[in-house]
Amino acid sequence: MIIDSGSYENVVSQEVVDKLNLPVEEHSHPYSLSWFKKGNEIKVTKRCLVSFSIRQKYFDEAWCDILPMDACHILLGRPWQYDRQSLYDGKRNTYTVVKNDIRFTLLPMKEKVTSKDVSKSSPSATTLLASKEFVEESRDFGIVLVLVPIVHTGASREKVEVATLLEKYSDVFPRELPPNLPPMRDIEHRIDLVPGSALPNKPAYRMSPKEKEKLQRKVEELLAKGYIRPSLSPCGVLALLTPKKDGSWRMCVDSRAINKITIKYRFPIPRLDDMLDCLSDQRCFLRLILEAGIIKSASSPMMSGKWPLKCLMAYLSGL
Questions:
Q1: pLDDT given at position 218
Q2: Which structural domains are found in the chain, ordered by start?
Q3: pTM score, two decimals?
């Protein structure tokens, strides 16, 4: 059915009249039309009373002229619109009509999307089919493909292997650091200061009682775990608290003053081009071996061309 404000007559298709066996009567004023169907002019000689409903909410009837048109089944023109005081809203594409002093708003039909239009439709368009439409689609194509998702509830083999490896070396990946400082090593780290420089000894930052209490609690916690110990050094380094995103506090040490009088040691790194030339076409590597041998000396296995390119890139990405 089409509502057409440009048509001066209400029209019903001859096919509808024949299938529904509608009662027909002679037209009181026969006339000719030519734009409903391609070809010669068509003589209008009969009409009938057509009852129709729109979305099972609006029920109406109208006298329609009978024509063998193929544009639609029912065309409601100016006579029906005049009787129902219809108003068209071009922005919302709706018609407002009045029948028996009741106002109705006729909404446009939603576009029907089938599987044939999926590739042309928007991403937000639905692609679900009713059972009847599915049967029709399957008859047209002849082949139906079914996609069945499989949900894996258990852990994959890779995850199990990783979990086993982490459990085997759990002492290397502890959830919390062990108490006390690490044991003495053969090579101990040392910070050398510029000879003759005065050691900084600045007063503490001003803080609120709440911050001071939290800082004291943090120092006592580190002392209990053995991570720090009372210092007898004449050098004083400032400590302060900074808030974190989760609302807790992080203790920070202001080492800018001591860093100014610290000797900066620099070690040359081999040229990238020379290292790439030495790697040759090796493919397998271990990052631990690379880190252990790349800086030691030029006579190491890495520099003799026995380690791969990927190993070098892994090391450089960690610098």
A1: 86
A2: 2-106 (2.40.70.10), 183-265 (3.10.10.10), 272-317 (no CATH)
A3: 0.35
